[in-house]
Amino acid sequence: MNSPIAEYHLQTRDLVTISVLGALGGALSTFVGYLGQLLNTVLGTPFGAGQFLSGLHVFWIVLATGLLRKPGVASATGLLKGVVEFFTGSTHGLVVVAVSLIQGLIVEAGSYSFRYRDSLPLYCIVGGFASASNVVVFQLLYFSGAPILLLLLLVVLAFSSGIIFSGYFGKVTIDLILSTNIVRGSRLPRFAAEAQSASRPRRLDPYRISAVIFLSVLAFGAGLYAVFIWRPVLDPFGCEVTGAVSRPYHFNYSAFASAQVTVEAELIGSVTYVPPRNYTGVPLTVVLAYASPTSGATTLRVLASDGYSVLFPLSDVLANPEIILVIENGLRLVAKNWSGAYWVEKVTTLVIS
Amino acid sequence: MQQNMKTGLALLASALVIAAGALVALRLMAPLSPNPSLDNVNVLVIDGSTRINLTLSQLVQMNPIKGNASYQNQLGNWRDYGTYEGVRLSTILETVGTVSAYDVVRVNATDAYSQLYSYDNLYPNATFQAIQGDLILAYAYNGSTPTDWESGPRIAFLPSDEGYSNDDANQTTPSAWYPPGSSGGSRWVYWVATIELLHVHPLEGSVNVFVMDGATQTNLTLPQLLQMNPIEANARFQNQAGNWRNYGTYEGVRLSTIIETVGTMGADDAVRVNATDAYSQLYSYDNLYPNATFYALQGDLILAYAYNGSAPPTWPDGPRIVFLPPDESYNNTDASQTTPPAWFPYSASGRCVRNVVTIELLHGMYPPAPTRSVPIANEPRDSRRSLIPSHFSPPKADLVLSEWRGRLDAVTLDAERV
């Protein structure tokens, strides 16, 4: 029998599990963000509905915690997931590392308090609190002045999402994975019996079917997103200019640096507010003028690497030299006098039609 | 364990119900705004000192019309399709006064939001009718009146295709009333409280030209241009293919008069005129102050604010640079003989910049230095050739793009270095 201290040590297999789940969670975060935008579009809400899926971010942390049931697993998975999100191009920048780490710490604290019990209610509660924490953290960092009622609603929605996706689907996925014997050996000895029990072959019941369906939908959706929506940022300081133009080309910021202007703009988003400050960049009028839009063109769609897009009337863009492309965490569109939803980060494509 | 599972499933069920409720609440709260009082639905119609309060029951008796419609929002999504019933805004205004072609109507909502509507919006001609349809104050939506319909009373357009798009709004609204970020939906004022008839010049604000000489800058609107000794003459001009275009009566102010509001032009100066799409042209002292030879070829050089009696936005090309030669015909030969080769856009029409936004006096810019020509022979005029030449290759950018001044989209091309 191992000593009590030794049994809490993370073994190589544990570290591999944390790495795989943290990396998966980080890599799929842009997909979750895209689903959130899609939900907003479907429901006709300008923002907020995406919180219904925020539990999917915490799912990976709960999954790692439930599989390994050792101290430090949740925090490490949260931190790793945040770092991967950051390096795969999260529009939140470094803030996402803090958000993810806090979610990991919340799951850690909850699980530790209940001695890493393998319990559906526990996963639901810690998942709920961890999911809801993102709303609070973002408000602390970017206080938007949004009505308190609205913020409460978002907290409730995120909490519910944590129960559903982190708690319930976390637990069913844990049980499903344990039944495959992949991680049984790495568990604490005192949990080995439970793991062995969970790993016994059982016929498929609705509980396990729901896990299979959930994982299948997640994998299928992520696959579709990766193939059809997501675009790798091959040139972080450039974008494609295409569509109804005489001269489609690849815009490279440095080639147009001599056309830079500085504008003072204020970002007024739905839940984000950035006071007026100076931005230096290349006016969209110049970028589009080089492509020479055809006479019948009426709209400009700006696409980001995560699939987000906004539509501008072309005439408004051509008449306003204060809409600029700046270098900020990649190529960012600063749309002065337009709502925050039009300030697109990680721009990859400008489509004129 | 079994108990844990039951508790967990109960939590899951509760979370699903709460999440559904929260999503519905979010949908209802978008946009989050206070609801106006829906009691005592009435609309105040104002013409100066004449004020009439119209109640819902009175509106219902005013020759109502009905039609299906929807509008596009900022993101291009179609919203609120349904059957709108209401009274033409023109009919409502006729209860307080007579609407002339020079009047403007302002509709105010209970939350202080407002929109302006032109005579053409109220009394649409065939073109406007095809684009926007009837403009009504709707008091019912899908059979619900404002006591049940929380967006009413509401302004609505009833186009024949049942869709009031952002393009429709853009085409039937003066640009000054349709700033960036506007949409078809922004023209559909909801919670209408007052309707005001304003007897002002209808085109005020629809012409807005920025004139500058270095730091000296001024804004010229139509009322100001009208006070600057306007002239009127017939003219036409040739395009690259040699076809005559845009014959008609142009009304405007000499460019020289406009420049004199900010500075004095010398013989070695130039004037650059920029359009909304970044197209620009340079004009010499001789163009602005033509001697007998130049006058015979080009006539007066004006900034036209009206064409055949129509000003922007009815005239989509205006304000426009126009030459008014004595023979009423500004051909490509006239243009080439009165334009330095380095500035010549290969057609007379290319010299007539449309949708002018800025006019700059540039000192010491004339005569232009010799330069290699930029072949554009096959490029149609409609493509609105940009200042950036077609041979410009970004990786080897030897173009000087400078003097970006705030809102002005002026680009200086140093042809010497090309």
Biggest interface, residues from each chain: A-B, 67 and 61 residues
Query: How many DSSP H or I helices of chain A?
Result: 12
What sort of overall outline of chain A do the alpha carbons produce when their principal axes are compared?
Answer: elongated
Distance between the termini of chain A: 70 Å
Q: Which structural class best describes the helix and strand composition of chain A?
A: alpha+beta
What portion of residues of chain A is helical?
Answer: 40-55%
| Subunit organisation of the chains | heterodimer
* Main sheet specs of chain A: 5 strands, mixed
Kindly report how far apart the N and C termini of chain B lie. Answer: 79 Å
Rg for CA atoms of chain A: 23 Å
Structural class of chain B: alpha+beta
Low-confidence segments of chain B, given as residue ranges, are: 31-40, 201-205, 371-418
Structure write-up:
The complex is a heterodimer of chains A (353) and B (418). Helix content of chain A is 52%, strand content 16%. Chain A has helices at residues 4-8, 12-27, 29-43, 55-68, 73-87, 95-113, 120-141, 148-178, 189-199, 206-229, 284-291, 314-318, and strands at 238-243, 249-252, 261-268, 273-283, 299-304, 309-313, 323-327, 331-335, 347-352. In chain A, a hairpin with a 5-residue loop joins strand 1 (238-243) and strand 2. With 418 residues, chain B is α+β, with helices and mostly antiparallel strands. Chain B contains 12 helices and 20 strands. Chain B has helices at 2-28, 56-60, 89-93, 119-122, 126-132, 166-171, 222-226, 255-259, 285-288, 292-298, 332-337, 348-351; strands at 42-47, 50-55, 65-72, 78-88, 104-109, 114-118, 134-141, 154-158, 163-164, 192-198, 208-213, 216-221, 231-238, 244-254, 270-275, 280-284, 300-307, 320-324, 329-330, 356-362. In chain B, the strands form 4 sheets. In chain B, strands 2-1-10-5-6 form a 5-stranded mixed β-sheet. The termini of chain B are far apart. At the A-B interface, helix 7, helix 8, strand 2, helix 11 and strand 6 of A face helix 1 and helix 6 of B.
